[in-house]
Amino acid sequence: MNTFPDQKVHIISSTAVKPSSPTPHHLRTLDLSLLDQLFPTPLAHTLLFYAGGEPLAGRMRASLSETLVDFYPLAGRLRGSARIDCNDEGVYWVEARADVWLADVLARPDETLLSQLLPSAHPETSVLAAAGCLLIIQITTFCCGGIAVATCGSHKLMDASSMAFFLRSWSARSAGRLGGGWAPPPRFLGDSLVRAKELPFMLSDYAGMESCATRRFVFHGSKISALKAEAVRSARSGESTRFTRVELVLALIVRCALAASRSVTGSSHHPTLLRQMVNLRNRMSPALRENDFGNLAFGINISYENGESTFHELVSGIRKEMISFTKGAEAGGSDSGELFSIACGSIGKAGDFFSKWKEESRFYRCSSLCGFRFYDVDFGSGKPAWVTCLSLAKNFVYMVDAKSGGGIDAWVTLDRRDMAAFERDEELLSYAAPNPSVAHQVMHPSRL
After folding, report:
1. How far apart are CA 437 and CA 209, in angstroms?
2. Catalytic: which of 155, 220, 270, 312?
3. Higher pLDDT, 340 or 75
4. What pairs with residue 147 in β-bridges?
5. Are 147 and 50 in contact (CB under 8 A)?
6. Are strands 83-85 and 77-79 parallel, antiparallel or unpaired?
7. CA angle 72, 73, 77 (to 5 degrees)
8. Model confidence over 350-368: pLDDT tens digits?
9. Alpha-carbon torsion (299, 415, 211, 96), positive or negative
10. Is the bond preceding residue 434 a cis peptide, omega within 30 degrees?
11. Does 378 participate in catalysis according to the annotation?
12. Catalytic one of 31, 85, 335, 378
């Protein structure tokens, strides 16, 4: 239910924040990789919430300008599909106020209000994205003095790991923690791993949100442990049982989403393609470092021709494909030809699937911010009370770490008719809590 139906967030000011010193001429062009080239242009976002304290916006803006000296491509502009003009035009900076208390927002997080905290909610943002702007930041101050820090960054340049590294570096500078070699400067990968190519295809843009509904479900660590125990019990001899938290939660969500779709259509014949984004950094040989900055996210495709796949079939299919992909990435190392072959093979698999099944098929996608240490982003007033993201495309699952206990927050977007059945699924609800409060993290003394 939409708890905050009206516009509660109002823009106060907006401007470009440029590097505090100009980028040298020899660094003015950054050629991107094949993986960057293949990614669609929409901006990826994160939301970090901080309890009330001293005003931070002015200090954050000044430290951002200083941070951009090292992270200079973020202040540039995208030219074509695979090149950044590092021209110091700047990161777009938005300051806003919200006519609500942070604790009220987090008492029952509402996707309609949360979306107002994203700079992508404003008309000028689409113009900026079309003009090649690579990073947009919105700082929203709540009535209690708490703030929300929203980032919208181009996947052409950075994945979740790079965004988290940038935020930790920026916040460390803002809080005065950069002494003593706190963090190494970024090393921009560009096209050093695999060069962009002339391609006969590009990945299509994300599907729209027409007739969709988004809901949040929280899987506590104990429930994920129970899911893993079930998956291990069902495993066949010789199968890998090293299931990750994300794989377990994703398999359950997809199983319940397929059950919802069957109940709506009355048909059990729904061949399914699942695309899961994975981080290449620790799957290459040698593994890349934390400060290796770029887009090292890649989608692996898992197909299921049986529309009534069991939880075990789904999770073991994800694990099997992940093992196969990791072996290929490790064997390829930094060989650009091998990486190009892996990328084309995955895209070809998806094309073959859709050519075969067409409108009979179901397509689900998952992206995860789990494990990227967003809760370490401290601008000087403490770590975030809550970190989240929103699923903004049909049949999309977006996951982020819960603050403690090894749990996962999952935002799920489905067709409205599917969601009506999905959110009542008894199997899902035996493992997931529908949209629990996180307000206890930020309760202001005057509201106790």
Report:
1. 25
2. 155
3. 75
4. 50, 141
5. yes
6. antiparallel
7. 125
8. 778 877 777 778 899 999 9
9. negative
10. no
11. yes
12. 378
How far are the Cα atoms of 301, 353, 383, 417 from residue 259, in angstroms, in the given order?
20, 21, 39, 12
Strands 272-279, 408-415: parallel, antiparallel or unpaired by DSSP? unpaired
Distance CA 316, CA 311 (A): 8
Length of the chain measured in residues:
448
Strand partners, 408: 219, 401
pLDDT per position as a tens digit, 170-216:
999 999 877 655 678 999 988 887 777 665 445 555 555 678 999 99
pTM passes above 0.85 = yes
Q: 200-235 burial string, b = 16+ CB within 10 Å, else e?
A: eeeeeeeeeeeebbbbbbbbbeebbeebbebbeeeb
Contact 255, 315 (CB under 8 A): no
CA–CA gap between residue 267 and residue 265 (Å, rounded): 5
CA distance 338 to 335: 5
3-state secondary structure of 251: helix
Per-residue CA distances from 299 to 31, 183, 192, 343 (Å): 22, 29, 20, 9
